[in-house]
Amino acid sequence: MIMTSKRKKKQKDPNSKIGICHYHLCRKKTRVYRCKYCGEYFCKEHLQAKPSGLPRFDSTKPEDKLFMEGWQKPGGHPCVPYLEIWKAEQKRKEEEYRQALDKFLRSKPIEKEPVHIPKIPISRQVPKRSTYPLQFYERVKQWFNHRNYPYSRLRTRKLMKDFLYLSILLVFSFVIYTNIEYLNEIVIVFLKLGSLLLSGSCILSLKYLYRIVVNLKYGFRGLKNGYKLIAIILLLSVVLYGYQNYGTHSSQLNDFLGNIEYSYFNPIVINSSYVSEFWEHEILGYTTKEELESNPKNISLKYVLRGKTGFIQFTVYGGVNDYLSELPRSITYYEGESEPTTKDFVMKYLNDEIQMEYLKPLTEKIKRITPNKDDQARIAISLVQHIPYDWEGYTTMNLEGRYPYDVIYDNRGVCGEKSQLLAFLLRELGFDVVLFNFETENHMAVGIKCPVKYSYKNTGYCFIETARPTIITDYQEEYIGVSKLTSAPEIIHVSEGFSFNTVSEEYKDAQEWIRINEISKSSGGYLGEYHYNRWLYLVNKYGIEIDKE
Asked: What is the mean pLDDT of the chain?
């Protein structure tokens, strides 16, 4: 008899099969099981049903907190049909809890048997320690570590990504800005390519900057209370530092903003000059070109070069003069900053941008007269010396502090004003220039770099008197009220540049001029024929003006 064994066939589970997990972040091929709520198939890790919906990070409702606890648990899958079942289950648990609490509150309290506590003799009693400091410490610690918004956090990867994009855009904008004149030569319809790229990159930069600020906002909200307090203290410290150094940083910021060409941001060719003018005049308050160049007048500036008299025709504008007259003559500084020096005031008068724009053409006219650098300096020196001295302002002490351009426009000035004008011209001609400020004698003169043996008291700079026509290196003139200059002057360095190396000609003439004047004084004003002819030769060579008595 042959025995046969019957194997029982394993019944297939209709709720499981070999397939792909339906969870969108898994999708791996394995044995999957059917969800009893939604009917989809999931692997063991994602089979557990979870309530579906968007995360509720900022909500403080108990229901939303329970929802977030389930949402943050690993595994499972969001199940739409399960949401109603989950809500019903939460209501059932809440009702059971309420009923149990109500039953507990209505029940009678359990009577406890009195417990006998033996008294400790007074001599052995330990004094109770105060628990207030400990309680206070625990409260502070609890407050420090508490988070008002525990689910709000900083997205670090997103922050780094936005920072990277912002840095790339800023570098791109800088490259476009520095080469915009070449790029703007390419015009598409009526749009300038360079300005279009620059404005577009700036708009994208603002977008990523906004995203960074929002990310930092949520990161700050999610911090512990203690860290928030530290951040606020640091922020207030930065604000206080900025307030104390407002003068320094505000001037730097104003200089930075003033150097930006805002017309570069306008990509439209049509009326671009109008837009730029509107921005600078109406928004920034700048004086327009039409206002500056109002009330023009032509003037003739005299100079003498080696006995030959020449004139430079130059156009000056009343609008520029009015603009300079409205500028403040003072310098504002704040507590903690160093007091402005004489050099600060000098450079304020020399470095005004509008004055430089309208006074530099005068130096260009001087350069066109001769290519010789030292002769260019001689023309500038003689030109300033032949501008009349402002005797009215000196005698009445009504000195308004003219800018160099004002001296040209008004055709008069005192020693300090004329010296600043000459320093401006020599600087623009490329020479190394200083100002000699004689505070005791209340006088100012100019110094130009030259060989030391010809310089004023071995300073390395030759003395130039600007009040009237004199010979370079001659500092033996007598001045009203102070006679000769005897004090040690303050040397104010204006610019680096060339040296006036051919000054030996003027130095020899100045020494001869001094000797002839000494002979004239010793003889009661009389000179022999030779000395008189030499005196007359020097007067004509340098255009020296002689007072007629």
From this structure: 83
